[in-house]
Hints:
There is one protein chain. This protein is an alpha/beta fold. The relative contact order is 0.17. The protein has helices at 52-60, 77-82, 101-105, 107-117, 128-134, 150-163, 180-197, 208-214, 248-267, and strands at 10-21, 24-36, 41-45, 67-72, 86-89, 168-172, 200-205, 217-221, 228-233. The strands form two sheets. It has a six-stranded mixed β-sheet with strand order 5-6-7-3-8-9, sandwiched between helices. The protein has a three-stranded antiparallel β-sheet with strand order 2-1-4, covered by helices on one side. InterPro entries: AAA+_ATPase, ABC_transporter-like_ATP-bd, ABC_transporter-like_CS, ABC_transporter_ATP-bind, P-loop_NTPase.
Amino acid sequence: MTQQNTTSTIDLRGVGRTYTRGRSTVKALTGVDLTIRQGEFVTLFGPSGCGKSTLLRLIAGLDTQTSGSISLFGSTPAQASRRKDIAWIPQSSALLPWLDIKANAGLSSVLNRRADRQGLSSRRPEDPDALLAEIGLGDFRDSRPDELSGGMRQRASIARGFAQGAPLMLMDEPFSALDELTRDTLRIRLLELWDRHKKTIVFVTHSAQEAVLLSDRVVVMSPRPGRISEIVDIPFPRPRGWELTEEPEFIEKVAEVKRVLWSAWEGDE
Protein backbone atom coordinates (compact mmCIF):
# COMPACT_ATOMS: atom_id res chain seq x y z
CA MET A 1 0.00 0.00 0.00
CA THR A 2 1.33 3.46 -0.94
CA GLN A 3 2.02 5.67 2.05
CA GLN A 4 0.44 9.12 1.74
CA ASN A 5 2.35 12.28 2.61
CA THR A 6 -0.06 14.10 4.91
CA THR A 7 2.26 17.08 5.34
CA SER A 8 1.78 18.14 1.72
CA THR A 9 -1.28 19.73 0.18
CA ILE A 10 -1.30 17.28 -2.76
CA ASP A 11 0.43 13.93 -3.10
CA LEU A 12 0.04 11.80 -6.23
CA ARG A 13 1.65 8.38 -6.61
CA GLY A 14 1.48 6.29 -9.77
CA VAL A 15 -1.66 8.02 -10.96
CA GLY A 16 -3.18 6.81 -14.21
CA ARG A 17 -6.48 7.27 -16.03
CA THR A 18 -7.76 4.99 -18.77
CA TYR A 19 -11.07 5.52 -20.57
CA THR A 20 -13.02 2.69 -22.19
CA ARG A 21 -15.02 3.47 -25.31
CA GLY A 22 -16.78 0.42 -26.66
CA ARG A 23 -14.08 -2.16 -27.38
CA SER A 24 -11.24 0.34 -27.36
CA THR A 25 -9.38 1.94 -24.48
CA VAL A 26 -7.66 5.32 -24.32
CA LYS A 27 -4.88 5.80 -21.79
CA ALA A 28 -5.00 9.51 -20.87
CA LEU A 29 -2.48 9.46 -18.00
CA THR A 30 0.07 7.01 -16.68
CA GLY A 31 2.52 6.89 -13.79
CA VAL A 32 2.12 10.44 -12.50
CA ASP A 33 4.08 11.15 -9.31
CA LEU A 34 3.83 14.69 -7.91
CA THR A 35 3.95 16.38 -4.52
CA ILE A 36 2.77 19.98 -4.09
CA ARG A 37 3.50 21.81 -0.86
CA GLN A 38 1.12 24.13 0.92
CA GLY A 39 1.21 27.65 -0.50
CA GLU A 40 2.89 26.71 -3.79
CA PHE A 41 1.84 27.95 -7.21
CA VAL A 42 2.35 25.01 -9.58
CA THR A 43 1.44 24.97 -13.27
CA LEU A 44 0.66 21.97 -15.46
CA PHE A 45 2.01 22.92 -18.87
CA GLY A 46 1.60 21.41 -22.30
CA PRO A 47 -0.47 21.58 -25.51
CA SER A 48 -3.97 20.20 -25.88
CA GLY A 49 -4.28 16.45 -25.47
CA CYS A 50 -1.44 15.87 -22.99
CA GLY A 51 -3.72 15.12 -20.03
CA LYS A 52 -3.19 18.25 -17.94
CA SER A 53 -6.91 19.03 -17.60
CA THR A 54 -7.62 15.36 -16.91
CA LEU A 55 -5.07 15.45 -14.11
CA LEU A 56 -6.65 18.58 -12.67
CA ARG A 57 -10.09 16.94 -12.71
CA LEU A 58 -8.68 13.94 -10.82
CA ILE A 59 -7.23 16.24 -8.16
CA ALA A 60 -10.58 18.03 -7.91
CA GLY A 61 -12.49 14.77 -7.45
CA LEU A 62 -14.49 15.40 -10.62
CA ASP A 63 -13.13 12.15 -12.05
CA THR A 64 -11.49 9.07 -10.53
CA GLN A 65 -8.09 7.61 -11.36
CA THR A 66 -7.93 4.02 -12.59
CA SER A 67 -4.54 3.42 -10.95
CA GLY A 68 -2.44 4.97 -8.23
CA SER A 69 -3.45 7.21 -5.33
CA ILE A 70 -4.21 10.89 -4.73
CA SER A 71 -4.11 12.53 -1.30
CA LEU A 72 -5.31 16.05 -0.52
CA PHE A 73 -4.53 17.13 3.05
CA GLY A 74 -4.33 13.42 3.92
CA SER A 75 -7.78 12.68 2.47
CA THR A 76 -9.18 11.55 -0.86
CA PRO A 77 -10.22 14.23 -3.37
CA ALA A 78 -13.89 13.33 -2.78
CA GLN A 79 -13.51 13.86 0.96
CA ALA A 80 -11.64 17.14 0.47
CA SER A 81 -14.34 18.31 -1.94
CA ARG A 82 -17.11 17.56 0.56
CA ARG A 83 -15.22 19.59 3.18
CA LYS A 84 -15.07 22.52 0.70
CA ASP A 85 -11.27 22.39 0.70
CA ILE A 86 -11.18 22.90 -3.08
CA ALA A 87 -12.12 25.92 -5.19
CA TRP A 88 -12.52 25.23 -8.92
CA ILE A 89 -12.10 28.05 -11.46
CA PRO A 90 -13.02 26.91 -14.99
CA GLN A 91 -12.12 28.22 -18.42
CA SER A 92 -15.42 30.10 -18.64
CA SER A 93 -16.65 32.29 -15.81
CA ALA A 94 -19.79 30.16 -15.17
CA LEU A 95 -21.56 33.02 -13.38
CA LEU A 96 -25.28 32.79 -12.70
CA PRO A 97 -26.89 35.33 -15.06
CA TRP A 98 -29.79 36.22 -12.77
CA LEU A 99 -27.52 37.27 -9.88
CA ASP A 100 -25.43 40.42 -9.61
CA ILE A 101 -21.67 40.17 -9.31
CA LYS A 102 -21.60 40.48 -5.53
CA ALA A 103 -24.13 37.66 -5.16
CA ASN A 104 -22.17 35.50 -7.60
CA ALA A 105 -18.94 36.11 -5.69
CA GLY A 106 -20.71 35.29 -2.41
CA LEU A 107 -22.23 31.97 -3.55
CA SER A 108 -19.47 30.10 -1.74
CA SER A 109 -20.67 31.58 1.56
CA VAL A 110 -24.03 29.88 1.07
CA LEU A 111 -22.42 26.56 0.14
CA ASN A 112 -20.03 26.69 3.09
CA ARG A 113 -22.82 27.42 5.56
CA ARG A 114 -24.78 24.42 4.27
CA ALA A 115 -21.71 22.19 4.55
CA ASP A 116 -21.02 23.53 8.04
CA ARG A 117 -24.57 22.72 9.19
CA GLN A 118 -24.08 19.17 7.92
CA GLY A 119 -20.81 18.88 9.84
CA LEU A 120 -18.79 18.58 6.62
CA SER A 121 -16.82 21.82 6.70
CA SER A 122 -15.69 24.55 9.05
CA ARG A 123 -14.16 26.68 6.29
CA ARG A 124 -14.85 30.36 6.76
CA PRO A 125 -15.54 32.16 3.48
CA GLU A 126 -13.81 35.45 2.77
CA ASP A 127 -15.54 38.78 2.22
CA PRO A 128 -16.74 38.91 -1.42
CA ASP A 129 -17.01 42.71 -1.32
CA ALA A 130 -13.36 43.03 -0.32
CA LEU A 131 -12.24 40.54 -2.97
CA LEU A 132 -14.19 42.31 -5.71
CA ALA A 133 -12.45 45.54 -4.71
CA GLU A 134 -9.06 43.80 -4.73
CA ILE A 135 -9.57 42.49 -8.23
CA GLY A 136 -10.85 45.83 -9.57
CA LEU A 137 -14.61 45.19 -9.63
CA GLY A 138 -15.66 47.20 -6.58
CA ASP A 139 -17.67 49.64 -8.71
CA PHE A 140 -19.47 46.79 -10.54
CA ARG A 141 -20.72 44.69 -7.62
CA ASP A 142 -24.36 45.49 -8.49
CA SER A 143 -23.98 44.67 -12.20
CA ARG A 144 -25.27 41.50 -13.85
CA PRO A 145 -22.84 39.25 -15.76
CA ASP A 146 -24.27 40.24 -19.17
CA GLU A 147 -23.39 43.87 -18.41
CA LEU A 148 -19.67 43.07 -18.08
CA SER A 149 -16.90 42.25 -20.53
CA GLY A 150 -15.44 38.75 -20.71
CA GLY A 151 -12.40 39.83 -18.73
CA MET A 152 -14.54 41.36 -15.99
CA ARG A 153 -16.65 38.21 -15.76
CA GLN A 154 -13.51 36.14 -15.35
CA ARG A 155 -12.32 38.51 -12.61
CA ALA A 156 -15.62 37.88 -10.82
CA SER A 157 -15.10 34.13 -11.20
CA ILE A 158 -11.65 34.41 -9.62
CA ALA A 159 -13.04 36.54 -6.77
CA ARG A 160 -15.71 33.87 -6.18
CA GLY A 161 -13.01 31.20 -6.00
CA PHE A 162 -10.97 33.12 -3.44
CA ALA A 163 -14.09 34.02 -1.45
CA GLN A 164 -14.84 30.35 -0.86
CA GLY A 165 -12.06 30.24 1.73
CA ALA A 166 -10.72 26.92 0.40
CA PRO A 167 -6.97 26.37 0.90
CA LEU A 168 -6.59 24.79 -2.56
CA MET A 169 -7.51 26.48 -5.85
CA LEU A 170 -7.59 24.57 -9.14
CA MET A 171 -7.60 26.75 -12.26
CA ASP A 172 -8.21 25.24 -15.70
CA GLU A 173 -6.88 27.66 -18.35
CA PRO A 174 -8.89 30.58 -16.91
CA PHE A 175 -7.36 33.18 -19.25
CA SER A 176 -7.30 31.26 -22.54
CA ALA A 177 -10.45 32.87 -24.01
CA LEU A 178 -9.36 36.45 -23.27
CA ASP A 179 -7.53 38.95 -25.43
CA GLU A 180 -3.80 39.50 -24.85
CA LEU A 181 -4.06 42.77 -22.93
CA THR A 182 -6.77 41.41 -20.62
CA ARG A 183 -4.74 38.25 -19.99
CA ASP A 184 -1.70 40.32 -19.05
CA THR A 185 -3.70 42.34 -16.55
CA LEU A 186 -5.39 39.34 -14.95
CA ARG A 187 -2.13 37.43 -14.55
CA ILE A 188 -0.75 40.20 -12.37
CA ARG A 189 -4.05 40.55 -10.47
CA LEU A 190 -3.98 36.82 -9.77
CA LEU A 191 -0.41 37.01 -8.46
CA GLU A 192 -1.38 39.87 -6.16
CA LEU A 193 -4.36 37.94 -4.77
CA TRP A 194 -2.33 34.78 -4.33
CA ASP A 195 0.40 36.65 -2.47
CA ARG A 196 -2.12 38.21 -0.07
CA HIS A 197 -4.34 35.18 0.52
CA LYS A 198 -1.69 32.43 0.67
CA LYS A 199 -3.59 29.77 -1.27
CA THR A 200 -2.14 26.68 -2.91
CA ILE A 201 -2.81 26.97 -6.65
CA VAL A 202 -2.60 24.33 -9.37
CA PHE A 203 -2.95 26.08 -12.71
CA VAL A 204 -3.33 24.65 -16.23
CA THR A 205 -2.03 26.50 -19.29
CA HIS A 206 -0.56 25.96 -22.75
CA SER A 207 1.37 29.26 -22.55
CA ALA A 208 5.04 28.91 -21.53
CA GLN A 209 5.29 32.63 -20.73
CA GLU A 210 2.23 32.48 -18.48
CA ALA A 211 3.56 29.38 -16.72
CA VAL A 212 6.94 30.96 -15.97
CA LEU A 213 5.49 34.30 -14.86
CA LEU A 214 3.06 32.77 -12.39
CA SER A 215 4.68 29.66 -11.03
CA ASP A 216 7.07 28.35 -8.41
CA ARG A 217 7.37 25.17 -10.50
CA VAL A 218 6.25 24.23 -14.00
CA VAL A 219 5.22 20.60 -14.55
CA VAL A 220 5.87 19.82 -18.22
CA MET A 221 3.57 17.08 -19.55
CA SER A 222 4.45 14.55 -22.24
CA PRO A 223 2.16 13.40 -25.08
CA ARG A 224 -0.65 10.93 -24.40
CA PRO A 225 -0.57 8.91 -22.34
CA GLY A 226 0.23 11.98 -20.30
CA ARG A 227 3.02 11.77 -17.75
CA ILE A 228 5.44 14.22 -16.21
CA SER A 229 8.36 14.82 -18.53
CA GLU A 230 10.20 17.23 -16.22
CA ILE A 231 9.53 19.73 -13.44
CA VAL A 232 11.21 23.10 -14.00
CA ASP A 233 11.91 25.28 -10.96
CA ILE A 234 11.22 29.01 -11.45
CA PRO A 235 13.78 30.99 -9.40
CA PHE A 236 12.52 34.57 -9.81
CA PRO A 237 11.78 36.45 -6.56
CA ARG A 238 8.31 37.62 -5.62
CA PRO A 239 6.35 39.80 -5.93
CA ARG A 240 6.57 39.71 -9.71
CA GLY A 241 5.41 42.39 -12.10
CA TRP A 242 5.02 42.51 -15.85
CA GLU A 243 8.48 44.11 -16.19
CA LEU A 244 9.97 40.71 -15.35
CA THR A 245 8.92 39.41 -18.77
CA GLU A 246 11.39 41.77 -20.45
CA GLU A 247 14.40 40.47 -18.50
CA PRO A 248 16.86 38.21 -20.38
CA GLU A 249 16.73 35.62 -17.57
CA PHE A 250 12.96 35.37 -17.90
CA ILE A 251 13.13 34.99 -21.67
CA GLU A 252 15.72 32.23 -21.27
CA LYS A 253 13.58 30.40 -18.69
CA VAL A 254 10.59 30.48 -21.08
CA ALA A 255 12.86 29.04 -23.78
CA GLU A 256 14.02 26.32 -21.36
CA VAL A 257 10.43 25.27 -20.60
CA LYS A 258 9.70 25.12 -24.33
CA ARG A 259 12.86 23.05 -24.96
CA VAL A 260 11.79 20.55 -22.32
CA LEU A 261 8.38 20.27 -23.99
CA TRP A 262 9.78 19.90 -27.48
CA SER A 263 12.25 17.25 -26.29
CA ALA A 264 9.45 15.24 -24.71
CA TRP A 265 7.23 15.41 -27.76
CA GLU A 266 9.99 14.75 -30.29
CA GLY A 267 11.16 11.77 -28.27
CA ASP A 268 7.66 10.31 -28.36
CA GLU A 269 7.40 10.31 -32.12
